[in-house]
Amino acid sequence: MVTHTRTPLRADRLRALNVPRPVAVELDAQGFPFAVDDGDGKRTIDEILEAWRIDDEWWREPIIRQYVEVVLEGGGHVVLFEDLTAKQWYIQKP
Amino acid sequence: MLSSDVAVCLWIPLFPLRCEERRRPGLAGQPAALLSPDDARRLWQVAPTARRMGVRAGMTVSQAIGLCPSLTLCEPDPVYYDEQFARLLLALGDVSPVIEPVELGRVFIGVDGLEGLYGKPGRVVEVITRTVAGPRSGTRAKRRTPNGRTLPASPFPPHRRRRGWAEVARLGWGKGKFVSWVAATRAKPGDAVIVANGERRAFLAGQPVAVLPLSPDTHRRLWQLGIKKLADVARLPEAALTSQFGREGSRAWQLAAGNADDPVTGQERPEPIVAAIDFPAPVGDRAMLVHALGKLIERALKHPRRTGWRVHVVRVRAALEHGASWMIGATLKDPSADRDHIAAPLVARLEQTPPNGAVEHLAVEFTAFARGTDELQLFARDASAAARAGRRRALHAAAHEIQTRLRRPMLHHIIEVQPWSRIPERRYALIDFEL
Lengths: 94, 435
Fold this sequence. Notes:
The structure holds 2 protein chains of 2 kinds.
Chain A lengths: L14 E2 L4 E7 L5 E5 L4 E15 L6 E10 L4 E7 L4 E5 L2
Antiparallel strand pairs in A: 2-3, 2-7, 3-4, 4-5, 5-6, 6-7
Chain B lengths: L2 E2 L1 E6 L3 H9 L8 E4 L7 E4 L1 H4 L9 H7 L4 E3 L3 H15 L6 E5 L2 E5 L4 H4 L2 H13 L9 E2 L5 E2 L18 E6 L1 H10 L5 E3 L5 H6 L10 H9 L5 H6 L2 H8 L1 H10 L7 E2 L7 E11 L2 H16 L7 E12 L4 E12 L2 H14 L6 E13 L2 H6 L3 H24 L5 E5 L11 E5 L3
Helix pairs in contact in B: 11-12, 13-14
């Protein structure tokens, strides 16, 4: 058994990293994103690297998201996801 | 440090083998191969005549003899090759102050401004070729112009004719090291390819992807994707190559499109500190060699020019019995003036690749240095540990000052929370830097 260090946890000192930001995403006819506007101008998506879906924490506030990892024009590598509950797109780093 | 945008690449393929052919003229034209300095059972360099019979570098000696029974094998003499290359660099230093050696037999020469001195690129290349060829025989020949005026005599003094490198050297002229290197690979022995600035892109477009400095895995993947020429690479979006191959892909695109900025950078030649010993009888015992190495390092460290400097690069040269030689080197991660710290990587290399014979003459050379003080060595057993401790103290002092001035923490650690999570914002978190 590991001895308790008696150091206070200080959960108030933890800050989230890579917090997602809301963005506007344009979809093509098949429903895949082809352009994103995060407030700094619209950029097209050159390539979709990976896509996956998460259905989690159904016992609390359900997290239902469709993720897409993309390469933007100019070489930027980001992750987009649509919150399927709120119907809002977000952007964050991979 | 001097640099030059326009470069000439001088390339002498199989330089060590060519060195052997120069001092053993009977070897030229024969199927010959050099043994590897690291593994005497394997081949290092193979002459073209032997390659035509299927012998390849890296093969074992028995495999090679099986393919080519008349193969002549030569013991390597790395000290001799190093000396020959150093002489070549010294001669090229008379043409341009911007010389960047890459490896034995390949050097970049910065030629910015030389057109004002010698004329068109063709003339500059001719000067380099003549420098590499060495002095010519005969009296000073007077040259005449078509209208009968006499030009000054040749700048080279009369000497007995010696065989130079000009017959085997390949030269390439272009803007940047990459273009000049590719041009050199396209030149025939004794010839030069000049790529004018306006022709750079067209010249590169037709070159094979093999000329790009990429890892073998990346070359294989490009081949599998059907990308064979630099024009194919340049036609792709840079973002696509970056996402597939990372930084290597981005660099490849820059080079293929002719956009890379890679000037020649002249290197300073520091005066080395040498300590050497001649053994009364050739020494084969490894323990004795290690002991002698330690003593030579100690002697070199006491040299007056070393005071106030720490050793960064060290080399050991040995002359073996029967005329062979052996050489190892080490670049210290943390420059040091401590004997054991300097000796440790050399002893390890000596164990891995011992000399192939008894040693008659042993020399230790310090060839590069970093600034340092004697006090650092007195009070810190390991200079790097002292530097780390100093950095920690400085970081704590800075964090304390920031917190005092701003009354809230501004420095944080990044800690792992759920690094395996598929939700990116749950993987890591920031926590205040603890004083």
